[in-house]
Amino acid sequence: MNDTYAFIEAEKTTHGVAFLCRLLKVARSSFYAWLAAQKTRAARRAADAALTHEITVIHLASRGTYGVPRVHAELRRLGRSVNHKRVARLMREHGIQGAHRRRRRSLTRPDKKARPAPDLIGRDFHADSPGTKLVGDITFLPTAEGWLYLACWLDLATREVVGYAMADHHRAELVVDALNMAHGRADLKPGCVIHSDRGSEYTSDQFRDHIRELGLRQSCGRTGSCFDNAAAESFWALLKEEIGTRIWPDRATARADVFNFVETFYNRRRLRKHKTFGYLSPAETRQRHQHTLAA
């Protein structure tokens, strides 16, 4: 119908509105109502174009990873009061999509002789305050030089990566180095739970002794159950999708990209919906917890 009204508007000086409306079997009142709303439509199109530009900038700043919920949350943080359905429509119309996660292979190789620690998490991936529950795991990144192994520890209260280490092996030293970083920068509380799978790195005497030296408590999920360490597994899926690169030319480049992703984007800028505080980055969530405790 809009095309019909647009045709009448274009030809009205030649044939007259009354004749064209009678010929095309439309009411003159409907045509004039459409004509009166033309300025409103033009203003709406201009507003949609401006909002699309803002959405594109936010999407690019997120490394092309944000979908509708996080783009909408970022717009709200910037003071833009806009309906999430409108954001979804504009992103759909312009082909703007968030990242989708891939499945990954597991590195877990249980030590059948080791006696694993009890599961102190029980799939409860929530913590009331930072420094009380950490989850960790190991993954690998492909490079032209061979695998780069990455171990991380996440604080469940903030989902901040508080400790990580990279090497060309995945022996126990790798997870110990990552834990030392977490202990040095995350203000871990005495008795903090350190949860992982039952991989040989985590059931080794070296790792267990180090946990005891630091005054922490070890926790292990069951063998073959990814759900017992779902928070760490989820982070690996997120990192491998959002970091963008599929294979690196060398380990040094992969190390630099991981550092940049964790320190400049994930911890400080990437929004995550907290059930109490709303959409915040992990660092902002930690600051909010600290402010709440101080108050």
UniProtKB/TrEMBL annotation:
<dbReference type="InterPro" id="IPR012337">
    <property type="entry name" value="RNaseH-like_sf"/>
</dbReference>
<dbReference type="InterPro" id="IPR025948">
    <property type="entry name" value="HTH-like_dom"/>
</dbReference>
<dbReference type="Pfam" id="PF13276">
    <property type="entry name" value="HTH_21"/>
</dbReference>
<feature type="domain" description="Integrase catalytic">
    <location>
        <begin position="126"/>
        <end position="290"/>
    </location>
</feature>
<dbReference type="GO" id="GO:0015074">
    <property type="term" value="P:DNA integration"/>
</dbReference>
<dbReference type="InterPro" id="IPR001584">
    <property type="entry name" value="Integrase_cat-core"/>
</dbReference>
<feature type="compositionally biased region" description="Basic and acidic residues">
    <location>
        <begin position="108"/>
        <end position="122"/>
    </location>
</feature>
<comment type="function">
    <text>Involved in the transposition of the insertion sequence.</text>
</comment>
<dbReference type="InterPro" id="IPR036397">
    <property type="entry name" value="RNaseH_sf"/>
</dbReference>
<feature type="region of interest" description="Disordered">
    <location>
        <begin position="99"/>
        <end position="122"/>
    </location>
</feature>
<protein>
    <submittedName>
        <fullName>Transposase</fullName>
    </submittedName>
</protein>
<dbReference type="InterPro" id="IPR048020">
    <property type="entry name" value="Transpos_IS3"/>
</dbReference>
<dbReference type="InterPro" id="IPR050900">
    <property type="entry name" value="Transposase_IS3/IS150/IS904"/>
</dbReference>
<dbReference type="Pfam" id="PF00665">
    <property type="entry name" value="rve"/>
</dbReference>
<dbReference type="GO" id="GO:0003676">
    <property type="term" value="F:nucleic acid binding"/>
</dbReference>
